[in-house]
Amino acid sequence: MKLVFACLAVLFLSSALAKLGRRKKPSVADAFDDAGITEILNITAPKNWLKVKYGPIEVKLGNDIYPGDTILRPTISFDKADPDAYYTWCLLDPNYNNYPAKSTKRYPSSIYALYVNIRNLDIKAADVLASYAGPVPGPGTGEHYYVHLYWQQKGKIDVKSRDLPDYEVDQRYPFNLTEFLSQHNYCDEPAAGNFHTASFPDDLQEVCEEGGYCQ
């Protein structure tokens, strides 16, 4: 009898391990959909992984990163990029005020980086519409998503056009991604994407309250 139970235990364990091995990690698109990012931004979820690293720290589809570690501009890479195409890299908070999902209020986004006309992933040679600013979650606003999108352009954007808004100063918040994409010639969906989360640091909460900044 003991031998029978032992054999059954081995079979159950083998079955569990086999299922665990077959269990796939969530795809980029699934992660974007599950987080509600695609709905808030009104975009098609990216299918490809955009590699984003803040020094040794890598963005991994929703991992939490301390705001102090994202002060400097990250490095990005995308293995499937077309070397002859132009791309746009943007970093945004799709729900800057962090309204509840069932809120009737609109979701104004905030842009933290907007680099256009990128070729061969050369960010330094890109045209900068909004220079990189490290994500800063507001005190008392809970957890925020910070979304990196890498979007293929259908042509080069004329950054000297007088009709182009001042995203560096006036248009960082609110930023309307849908409107921006419609004004320029972009592919229907982002070529790649990634995102992480961050909250106002607990170690700064007391200082914030004492200084009267957390009203």
UniProtKB/TrEMBL annotation:
InterPro entries for the chain: PEBP-like_sf, PEBP_euk
Keywords, ordered alphabetically: Signal
CDD domains: PEBP_euk
SUPFAM superfamilies the UniProt entry points to: PEBP-like
Signal peptide residue numbers: 1-18
Keyword check for Transport: no
Name under which the protein is recorded: Phosphatidylethanolamine-binding protein homolog F40A3.3-like
Gene assigned in the entry: LOC128199226
